[in-house]
């Protein structure tokens, strides 16, 4: 059985979007159970509209809801222990839920998740992983904005966590991993990226296939299953891609409305356009996954609708079913055991 | 009179693309004069096919052509003084040409440009500026990959150079300038970006309107005329946008070929699709501009065709006609004079 804890107050529309979203995901995964956290008077009537959801859920009233513009420090001060956001995360910590979903503000959600769940052994900083639509299907890109800057060891950690997530989400044995860089030659780019490349090559980890460097245009091509970068460049890549997609959609709309022939052509090709819209729909892959904590938290986009929220719940389901946390823990253990053996061997051969 | 020096051997196709490209740009700007550098046996017949171009050009034979895969160090060692790339840059240094255009490899072109032209007074490192198509028209984005990393002072320098280029290219008095960051609040993001924001706000330069922080999705929106970032994030943003545009074009192609109705619709809406293709055409805004050197060098995309090369020559023409170099020099002088006055005042008030 998979239980998902949900902060139904998060996002621009709170329970208005979260609750119908949960109902949609439950239709696809009838085995799911939910622990819902929110303000009773805003949720009860909405839940009653979805009898199947009501039957699969336990509701917990919370006095406090973290607001979308609350600073992380304020959210932690006022919302710790008591807010719907905190309590949904805490349910994962206490083992009551397998994974938590919230559309609440990213800064507050990350601050509370770190505070409540703590980082895994050997992991210094968590990362946010995005699911990126590509010409070959989907890739995982991390970090898209949890922290700014990363050293070689942190990039190596991100690589392992991303590979474990790819195994859980795409169900492949050895996902390919690339480090985002400027230029694919080994001499180019940031020192920490080059160093991470050397570590990954030397480590020969069984859970991933280290591909080498990739560039910005490899993201859309889907050259590798997992693209690893630090949070500043990752966030800029993510938002640039979203902006470019919206820009082209806008060009297309303008072009198709311009002449009568174009409008007629649009009508004839409407099913093709619908397919395209579906391909480009950011809701399809809604859900940033916080990695590196002792528990999985899924961040849904704050401005999404019920379909988008349901997609984030679907991701939560996949992560829990494939036991992402154990996969990451095992990989980290293996890597660090190898490192220890490596340094013992080095010490022996030097001595 | 504007004279443009051209390395006709650069790019994947060398003179086959450069020479017809020059002829196209000359049709649009009949007042242009060209100094052409290349291998005589590969160019003479091609030039003869364009009598107007032949009349407007002086050809200089060069024994050596820098190859697309030459490392910058090798290009400098073998190609200095003698290659078509070097001599086209040198023509700018000697005052024989107003601006240089090459489709040669970026690393070699930047290394030779730095070595030959040297950085401007008060500028530590040059930047590459790209012209970015937006929903509002075009913006300038720099640095898209000249150097990795930049401190607050370098970001401030880039802002001034970018603003001067916007004045030269778009003919506006006070272009708006934004610093690329993760999140628009003043508390977020990289320390050096925040520091550059404080400097730009305090400096109140007459040649720009400092807007504040922008995010990745502001690039496509055209929120500001000039977007400033360091070369790693800038290169990743540029390539991610190019990759996303290609990805969507691919989706569109696939969707339109799927059913007979869609194909019929495509035929009816063909002129609209042609307009869209034109909007998305990377050749329209082909040409990275090297800024911060004592002379302007335009890098055309290596894989472009004659139309793309002509677009790069058009950019060179606009830069020279509006005397970009003087604009940058004046802004830098003004800024550094202000800084000096500021530190004298600070010293007086402290003393």
From TrEMBL, chains A, B:
The keyword Acyltransferase applies. GO terms for molecular function: phosphate:acyl-[acyl carrier protein] acyltransferase activity. GO terms for cellular component: cytoplasm. It is an enzyme of class 2 (transferase). It holds the Pfam family FA_synthesis. Its main location: cytoplasm. Pathway: Lipid metabolism; phospholipid metabolism. Its EC number is 2.3.1.274. NCBIfam families: plsX (TIGR00182). Catalyzes the reversible formation of acyl-phosphate (acyl-PO(4)) from acyl-[acyl-carrier-protein] (acyl-ACP). This enzyme utilizes acyl-ACP as fatty acyl donor, but not acyl-CoA. This is Phosphate acyltransferase. It comes from Flavimaribacter sediminis.
